[in-house]
Amino acid sequence: MGSTGITEADVDKAMAVGESGRQSLRRDDPAIQALAAAVSVRRRLEGEDAVTDDELLAAHDQLHAKMPHRNGGSLEALADALLGRGIVPSPDDYDGDWWLWWPKKGYGPCRDCRQRRSLTRYSAKWGKPYRYLCARCRKQELADDTAYLNSVTGVVPVEGESAESPFSRRTTALIGQLGSQLAAPERQAGRPDTEQWGEYIDRLMEILGPLDWAGWQVPDEYDSDWDDETGPMLFATLWRTSAALDVEYYPREGRLRFLPYDDVCGDFPESFSALDEEVELTVTLEGDEAVTVVQHRAGALGLLDATRVRVVEGADPEAAEAFEAESLLSLFSPAASYRKIPVADIVKEAVQHPDLSTYLRWVVGMAGRNVHPDPVPDAAALGIAAWCWRNETAVEAHHLPSDVLMARVNIAVTRAVLPHVCPYEGIDWDGIEQSLTDTDWRLPNGRTVSSLFGDGWQEVQSTVREQIRKWQRLDSELLGPDTTLRLMTIGGSTSYTRHWWGQGRWRAICEGIVQDAVRAEFTLPQPYDCRGSDALIDDLEDPDMQSDAVLDWLIDMPEAPVSGPHGLRHHPVTQPLVREYDPWWATPEGVGASCPSGPQGT
Fold this sequence. Notes:
This protein is an alpha+beta fold. The chain is built from 23 helices and 13 strands. Strand 11 and strand 12 form a beta hairpin. The longest helix is centred in the C-terminal third of the chain and has 35 residues, at 457-491.
């Protein structure tokens, strides 16, 4: 086997994967040999042995031909490595289905500019095939497409015109130009053509944008169906780490449904549903209103925050251990890929690292024990605010004179951090340091943060800078951007921050507090005693823009008796939603058949 680079250990691993997939295969079976070749290439990629482009592509193609399913993630890993070298399939390669296992996002040479950058698998409208482009080239292509549409349709956006108006006018123009084609039998029957399906997919991806930003893997390809009564339908399963939910979209009816995920086949034993019941939303076919509707409802459902999940009481101990092991793998596997060393070595380094061990033991292991290691930028910003500003620094030693003022500064810190946290590029620690240590950094009312701390500002500035640089070193030298983002997400998802602005459930929390106060016939703070509770809820989305009286009312609600209802400090609505993982598959009855798709990149 030495001439091919395949060792007996590679074959052993291939056999283990085959057996875990309930396949009965011999060591000399072509499928096992193909998988062993893939294992060999992955091993050499992680080490110092050279692997040529031809070897890498051959291993990928052979594995796709002989064992496209249940290959232990090798096909996806080889595809990711090929992308990193700029080797990307043509649209019709692999029967046109290569997008099923090739990564949605990666790092490598951009197809257009050839610079090595973060890439996204991308297909704009107007029938262009999938390709991998960097953000700059996608933006340029969008500009080029817009210019082309301007010339073809004669419609040019005018200053002050909404984004939807040019689209509507262009559509009208194109319909006029293509009237004869629109009379085709498929159109007459009301069924969408390829272009319409593409527009529906683009719209669904836009509507699901808040979930995409919150770490959910929003696909750019969907299963579809057609019904004479309901019209077109798109559906898919969204994954984030091991959590899943099903989505159905009915564009003609303006309906979007979120449904609980059920792993009926037991193919993904560590998966669990992010929802307990169905949720239906009314969404528009155009405009930003639908995105806002999804953002508010998904936030209330806890889908825009990190998932909290506990193993159900009485679960099989081995299943519970497997679930915890899978969570640990989700947290540290990206670091292992970043460092190109085994996960076990990363975990060992992390728990022994003097700057990280306490955080892992206290924040991850205790305060954030039920928090799933999801990559959620907004929650990570809260984690940075909590552990690089409020804790482990001199901020608490110079506590501000009122809770209202402290809340204003907390919000200002979170706002300053948010622009520097990206799910694709990671955390810009230099930008965060500059923002949080700037002597001229101001609150919305014009007061500088430095002036609030008086003579203590230099100590605050110094200790905050020290914390940020500590995490910057951990990010670059030990953890890498993905694992660091997940650790900060856990840090921003403990009980310490459950009252803070910036979490996905913030609007829902404010709704619960205000609605309870209205039911108790409490007096709303001015001017909302006249404007009403709906206006108050809307305006509390930006609480730092409200008066001290409004913020004080929200935090402690002066009319509240001991029995409640209460303000933000004590209201039960601030308790996060917690899901349960119930490993029914661990029992003899939990044996199922195979299923077609599941979580990627965990």
